[in-house]
Write a structure and sequence with these properties.
Number of domains: 1
Strand content: under 5%
Number of helices: 5
Shape: globular
């Protein structure tokens, strides 16, 4: 596996921060990647979407920022590493973690913490 570039890591940071902001503002859902105003489940990139799960917000932010999929993979991996560090176990998926939460706050915090972890990784390189 090749080493990620600084640009890819920076894109991952931007994606995590953008997705975290969306979720932290309460545009959050469970049980699906995204929902419209009527609560209908949608793909995360659908223009009618107005609420996203953590993973859906990540994909929506990546599309809005036009980042490479390699950067999205870096962001997802950073979130999973952070979850493992905090919980001591690896969840089945980011969607499973999202759906187990009672509010949007832990999901948004996970994204911001993962972005900080990547920022630290860059500064120590």
């Amino acid at each position: 596996m090749r080493k990620p570039t600084v640009e890819e890591i920076n894109e991952a940071i931007d994606t995590l921060e953008s997705a975290g902001t969306v979720v932290s503002l309460g545009f959050w859902t469970t049980g699906t990647y995204a929902r419209d105003a009527s609560g209908v489940a949608l793909p995360p990139y659908d223009k009618s979407a107005c609420a996203w799960c953590g993973a859906g917000a990540l994909y929506e932010a990546a599309g809005a920022l036009n980042v490479r999929m390699d950067s999205v993979d870096i962001a997802r991996s950073a979130m999973m590493r952070r979850l493992r560090a905090v919980t001591g176990t690896l969840p089945r998926s980011l969607m499973a973690f999202n759906d187990e939460q009672m509010s949007h706050e832990p999901v948004a915090q996970l994204m911001f913490d993962a972005a900080d972890d990547l920022r630290e990784r860059l500064s120590s390189a």
